[in-house]
Amino acid sequence: MTYLFGGFELDLARVELRAEGQPCPIEPQVFALLAFLVENRERLVSREELFEKVWDGRVVSDSALDSRVKSARRALGDDGKAQRFIRTIHGQGFRFVADVTEATAVSLLAGAQPLAPGIALDASSRPSIAVLRFRPVGNAGAGATIADALPHDLITELARLRWLFVTARGSSFRLEAADPDITEVGRVLAVRYVLTGTLEVSGRQLAVMARLCDTRDGGIVWAERYTGAIDDVHAVRAEIRSKILTALEIQIPLHEAAQARLTVSDNLDAWAAYHLGLQHMYRFNRQDNTQAAALFRRAVARDPDFARAHAGLSFVHFQNAFMRQTDDIRGEISLARECAQRGLDLDPLDPFVNFTMGRSFWLEGDLDSGLTWLERATSLSPNYAQGIYARGWTEALAGSGREGRDHVDLAMRLSPLDPLYYAML
Question: N or C: which end of the chain has fewer CB within 10 A?
């Protein structure tokens, strides 16, 4: 999605602000603040909500927020007096007030064109997803607000996954059909997956049904039902969000690998090779580890800038050393570190890349360095079950048994079907 206002273009896909077509220098956090205000321009955004969404709930001072707002205004040629774009509502928050046009119109009317003209679904592209508004069933009462709030939270959290392209809320929330044609949604939004859901309140119980579909054939990839007490709606919302996010992190790669098996092996693209590599990587034996390494190398050969493929190579070299599947332990340790470092050079914000770097330090008994990288992985993706498990494992070895136990328990709740669940046990 690209938003146009006052001679500016706010390009969410490229994380870029342009003035008359020329990029404007802007800090990532300032861009995130500006994007959030533009996407929610129909309403006032409170200071507390900005702290939650832009700073992920971390404790920061009011002056830090004011500084970012000032920087956003400066980038737009605005100031606190004119307030042509960002208006301060004293004691309450901020609102984006300029007229905004979206780069492309979205509708499901007959003849609608894909959101990105000229860009069609490509098997070699990274997976993409749109999260639609959840549909209230019957009289949901006060719980109906979750039908918007939950998918909005999911979009925000999924956007942190560097391997997944996520359609902006401003586009996906425009599709209002009660029972949308999944293949048509995929065509209009140019995405491979669609997440839909329903919400129902019965007495004091809240039930949410989530469903992940493949837009190429309309088939259901995964579905689950979650329940909780309406009296504790915010805790239930947070728990359901975490469980759905964890499920998607597992189910999408599994489905990608299943699709890749249908492709002639000599024509595997980088993404397909990577996902097939994951299938072998998690079988924990010498033969499959060798096949995983070959598939990750193929992915890197097809796309040298594919950070996760380098991290996959780090993972298999780690296993070779950790499980003593080689006579050259030192060489495998060196390769595990080297591949993780290459992944970090390409994408320092990918949780899996940081995870592999952290585990590479285990092999040398350097728990403090390993914990630093694993804490970074889980701060980048707070629901990353494998990162949380690895952090707990390291804490336990370092003597922090209670913290380690708590983190492993959390990892098991987040991902009860995880391929590393045996290790968590």
Answer: C
